[in-house]
Amino acid sequence: MPSESTIPVRVFGGQGYVAGEVLRLLALHPAVHVACVSTTSQAGESVVGAFPHLAGTRLDGIRFLDQEEAATAGWVKGRVEAMIFATPHGATSALIDRALTAAESAGAHAHAIDLSADYRFRDADVYASIYGKPHAAPHRLAEFVSTVPEFHRGATPRHAAQPGCFTTAATTAAYPFVKAGIVEGPIFVAAITGSSGSGRTPVAGTHHPERAHNLYAYNALAHRHEREMRGILGAAAPNGQEPDVEFVPHSGPFVRGIHATVRMTMKSGTTAEAAARIAADAYEGSPFVRVGTSPPKLTEVVATNRVRLGVAVRGRTLVVTSVIDNLTKGAAGGGIQWMNRVLGLPESTGLLIPGPGWI
Ligand SMILES: NC(=O)c1ccc[n+]([C@@H]2O[C@H](COP(=O)([O-])OP(=O)(O)OC[C@H]3O[C@@H](n4cnc5c(N)ncnc54)[C@H](OP(=O)(O)O)[C@@H]3O)[C@@H](O)[C@H]2O)c1
Q: What is the pLDDT, as a whole number, of residue 1?
C-alpha cells in the first residue's frame, strides 16, 4: 500500500514483459511503492488484468496511466521519486528527458533508471551508429552511468542505465579476469537466450513454433550487445583498452534465462588456482554473484537476481559459464538494484528472493 514512509516509483513500459517483472519485484519491495504504471495503449485498464500472475498483491486496484501524464504530472517540490523505464529503445530517451524536465521544473528529486538501450553509451554518435538513428536527448547522456551494478566504483550516480541482458551475462563472467589484467587476445562469447528476451509482441523469427523446439544462432559477430561488452570490459581493464569481443547469440527452447559460455586466453603462468581466486575475490561480499568450478544451470537463477559462474581452466584456456534470468538480473532486477543504490538503500533491498527451482 502507498505509504508516507515509502518512496514512490513510476513504472514505464505498460503491458511489456520487463514492466511486468519490475512490478512483480516491486510488489514485495519494503521501501518503495508503485505510484503509477504508464501505457501507450491501455490507459484506464487494470494492471493486474495485463499481469494476472500479480493479482492479489498490492498492485490490485492500480490502473494504467497515460504515458505523458505519468511522465509529467504530479511532481512535488522536494519529494524524492524514482522512475523505471522498461520502454522500447528509441522511444525512451526523449520520454526520460520530458519526465526529468517536468520533475526539475517542479523542484522534485527524481531518479531515472533506464532498462532500454537509450542511455547505455556516453557518446551519441556511438548510439546512432548501433541503433541507426540519432539520440533524441544527447544533453542527458552524461547524467547516466551504465554498467553492471557490481562493477561500479566511485560516487553513486543520480541516474543509471542497466546494460543489456546478454551483456550482463557475458561481462559478469569476464570482468574479474579483465580487471586483473590476465586476459590476452579476443574474448569469445556464445550465449543462449530464452524467448522472453524478444518481448511480448510475436514476430516471424521469434514466434513460438520457430523457437519452442529449436536452437539456432543469429547475428553472429554483429549483435548490438557486442559493442556494450567491449565498452564495459574496457572500462575495467587496467590499461583502459577495450578487448576484442566475438559474440554469437543463440535462441534456445525455453522462456526465461541466458546461458553464456565465455572463452578467454590467460597470460602465460596464470594457474587455475590463481584464476579461481581472482573470480572469488572480485565478487566477495556480493549478494547476487556466486562463483564455483562446476558449470551452473539456468534453474539455479531463473526468476531471481542471481548470477552463477562456473570457472574451468586447462593450460592458458579459461572458460567461464554464466547463467542469469534475462528479465530479472538482465533487466528488471538489475534496474531495481540500481534504483536501490541511487535512492541510498541497501542494494539487495527487495531482491533476495528464492527461485522456483523447477520451471
Ligand atoms: N525482454 C528482455 O529480456 C529484456 C532484457 C533487457 C532489456 N530489455 C529492454 O526492456 C525494454 C522492454 O522490453 P520488453 O521485453 O518488456 O518489451 P515488450 O514486451 O515489447 O514491451 C514493451 C512495452 O512498451 C510499451 N510501448 C510500446 N511502444 C511504446 C512507445 N513508443 N513508447 C513507450 N512505450 C511503448 C508497450 O506497452 P503499452 O502498449 O502498454 O504502452 C509494450 O508492451 C526494451 O527496451 C528492451 O530492449 C528487455
A: 43
Number of domains in the chain: 2
Note whether 245 and 230 are within 8 A (CB). yes
**Nearest residue to 80 (alpha-carbon basis) of 39, 41, 33, 119:** 33
Q: Which residue has the cell 547469440?
A: 249
CATH of the domain at 69: 3.40.50.720
Q: Are residues 18 and 51 in the same domain?
A: yes
Query: What confidence tens digit (pLDDT) does each residue in 12-52 have?
Result: 999 999 999 999 999 999 999 999 999 999 999 999 999 99
User: What's the pLDDT tens digit per position in 235-286?
Assistant: 999 999 999 999 999 999 999 999 999 999 999 999 999 999 999 999 999 9
Residue having the nearest C-alpha atom to atom 7 of ligand 1: 331
Q: Is 201 a member of any domain?
A: yes
36 is an active site residue? no
Is residue 163 within 8 A of residue 185, CB to CB? The reply is no
- Is residue 359 scored above 90 in pLDDT? no
Which amino acid would we find at residue 42?
Answer: Q
Sign of CA dihedral 68, 73, 77, 83: negative
CA of 250 to the centre of ligand 1 (A): 21
- Inter-residue contact 140 to 96 (CB < 8 Å): yes
Give the integer Cα–Cα distance in Å for 110 and 91: 19
Quote the domain boundaries for residue 91.
7-146
Q: What is the 3-state secondary structure (H, E, C) of 101-118?
A: HHHHHHCCEEEEEECCCC
Rg of the chain taking only CA atoms, in angstroms: 20
Question: Does ligand 1 lie within 6 Å of residue 355's CB atom?
Answer: no
Q: Are residues 238 and 90 in the same domain?
A: no
Of the residues 36, 37, 95, 165, only one is catalytic, namely: 165
174 shares a domain with 95: no
